[in-house]
Design goal:
Layout (H helix, E strand, L loop, with lengths): L1 E7 L8 E6 L3 E8 L2 E6 L13 E3 L2 E3 L6 E3 L16 E2 L1 E4 L2 E6 L9
Antiparallel strand pairs: 1-10, 2-3, 3-4, 4-8, 5-6, 6-7, 9-10
This protein binds FE2/S2 (inorganic) cluster (FES).
FE2/S2 (inorganic) cluster binds next to loops.
């Protein structure tokens, strides 16, 4: 396993989201929901589109390009046209930082 430091807790107030970079290549979206931090792949599973341009409603994230909604607990798409879930990465908060814990190797991304 590896732990990856994404950003500071202060950078993502409740109800907001912010993109972070991993390994200089992968985008990971950090979302501060009412139920805590969630981290998901930063690019939509439907087509190449940055999810930080979308919008949050409760525990769901809506992609701004074709308006599929995704559940932020399990990444599942709730509306078409997206069919693949978003990869969700387990988060840890430590010393004021948001980290993810993921298997060694490339970050899992569904596309
Ligand atoms: S690119 Fe996100 S729903 Fe199509």
């Amino acid at each position: 396993m590896r732990r990856i430091d994404l950003l500071a807790v202060d950078e993502v107030p409740v109800g907001t989201m912010k993109m972070a970079w991993v390994d200089g290549t992968d985008m990971v979206l950090v979302v501060n929901t009412d139920a805590g931090f969630r981290a998901t792949q930063g690019i939509c599973s439907h087509e190449y589109f940055e999810l930080d341009k979308g919008f949050l409603t409760g525990g769901t994230l809506t992609c701004a390009l074709h308006l599929s909604r995704f559940d932020l607990d399990d990444g599942e798409p709730l509306d078409p046209p997206a069919e693949l879930p978003l990869a969700i990465y387990p988060t840890v908060v430590e010393n004021g930082r948001v980290l993810i814990e993921v298997p060694n190797g490339p970050l899992e991304v569904n596309e």
